[in-house]
Amino acid sequence: MIADINIAVVTGGGHGIGRALCRRLHDDGAIVVVADLDLAAAEEVAAEMQGIAIGVDVADETAVAALVERVENDIGEIDLFVSNAGVGFGDADDNAASKHGGMHASDDRWEACWQVNVMAHVYAARALLPRMLGRGGGYLVNVASAAGLLAQIGDAAYTATKHAAVGFAESLAITHGDAGIRVSVVCPQAVATRMIGIEDDSDTTEGGFGGNEVDGILSAREVADCVVDGLAAGRFMILPHPQARDYFQRKAADHDRWIRGMQRFRRRLAGEQQ
Ligand SMILES: NC(=O)c1ccc[n+]([C@@H]2O[C@H](COP(=O)([O-])OP(=O)(O)OC[C@H]3O[C@@H](n4cnc5c(N)ncnc54)[C@H](O)[C@@H]3O)[C@@H](O)[C@H]2O)c1
Q1: What is the mean pLDDT of each run of 10 residues along the chain (274 residues)?
Q2: Which atom of ligand 1 lies at the shortest distance from residue 158's CA?
Q3: What's the CATH code of the domain at 53?
Q4: Does 11 reside within a domain?
Q5: Does the residue 2 lie in any domain?
Q6: Given phi > 0 = left and psi -120 to 50 = alpha, else beta, which region is 76?
Q7: Nearest ligand 1 atom, CA 194
Q8: Is residue 248 part of a domain?
Q9: Number of other CB atoms surrounding residue 117 within 10 Å
Q10: Mind telling me the catalytic residues?
C-alpha cells in the first residue's frame, strides 16, 4: 500500500486498465470510487470491493467538479485521482494502411479525443488542485499513452491528444511539485482491453490492433501493478513497456532518423514495398 492513499478515484474504472487499477488499489487497502460513463460497469466493479460507483462523463467539466465535490463531502478527502478514461477511434474510418493517417476523422471524433484525452485531465486538476494545495499534498495520475511520446500510426487524433496529455502532466508536475502535489503520467504501449479489440480480463499477449502491436500486449493487471510501483517510487513517467524508453531516447537523439524508421514501419503495416 502506498502509505498516504486512503481514498482513490479512478475514471474509466468500469473496464480495462481503470478496472484493474481499482482492483489493485482496493487490494492495497484504499477506498475506491469507480467513476465511469458506463455506470452499470462501474457498479459491477464497485460491488467486488465495497467501493462506490459514480456515473460521470469526464468530458463535462461540471460533472467532473460534481464528482470531486460529492466524494469529498460524502466519503472524504481524495488522496489519489486517476484520470484514466480515454478514447481512440483507431481505424474505424481509416487505418494504418491509409494515406491519411486518421487526419480525416470527423471533427466530432477529434473533439471527443480532445475532451476525453486532454480536457478531462484539466477539469480534474481544476477541481482538485485548490483542495490538495490547501491540505499540502495529493496525487494526480494521468493515463496517456506511448502514443503521447512516440506516435500511433493511423490515428492522428489519438497521437496529437496523447502528446497534449503528456505536456499537461509535465506542466502540472513542474508547477505544483514544490507544493507537495505528486503527478505521474502513464504511457503504455498495447494493453489487452476493449480499446484494442480484446475482451476485458484477457491474458492475451498478441492480436491487438489487428495484430499490429509491437513488443507484446500487457494485461491490464500488469499495467495496474506497474502504476502502483511507479507511484510508490515517486516516478513521474511510468512506462509499463520498458522498450518505450529506448524508442523515446532514440527519437530525442535523432528525430529525423526516427521519422524515417516510422515511415518504414507504416509501409510494413500497409503491406507496401519497403
Ligand atoms: N489499451 C491500450 O492498448 C492502451 C495503450 C495506451 C494507453 N491506453 C489508455 O489507457 C486508458 C484506459 O484505456 P483502456 O485500454 O482501459 O480502454 P477501455 O476502453 O477498456 O476502458 C476505457 C473506460 O473509459 C470509459 N470512458 C470512456 N469515455 C468516458 C467518458 N467520457 N467519461 C467517463 N468514462 C469514459 C469507458 O466506459 C471505459 O470503461 C485510456 O486513456 C487509453 O487511451 C490504452
Answers
A1: 88 98 97 98 97 98 98 98 93 54 82 98 98 97 98 93 98 98 97 90 72 83 97 97 97 98 90 68
A2: 43
A3: 3.40.50.720
A4: yes
A5: no
A6: left
A7: 20
A8: yes
A9: 31
A10: 158
Q: pTM to 2 decimals?
A: 0.95
Q: Which of 34, 36, 83 maximizes ligand 1 atoms within 8 Å of its Cβ, making it the mutation to test the pocket?
A: 36
* Distance, CA of 265 to chain centre: 24
Alpha-carbon span 164 to 12, nearest angstrom: 19
- Count of domains observed in the chain: 1
| Ligand 1 pocket member 37 (CB < 6 A) | yes
Grid coordinates belonging to 167? 505536456
How many whole angstroms from 264 Cα to the centroid of ligand 1? 29
From the CA of 12, give the closest atom in ligand 1: 24
Nearest alpha carbon, ligand 1 atom 8: 145
pLDDT in tens, 87-105: 998 755 555 545 566 777 8
Cβ neighbours of 259 (radius 10 Å): 12
- Establish whether residue 109 lines the binding site of ligand 1, counting it when its CB lies within 6 angstroms of any ligand atom: no
For residue 145, tell me if it sits in a domain.
Answer: yes
User: In terms of residue numbers, what domain contains 23?
Assistant: 7-270
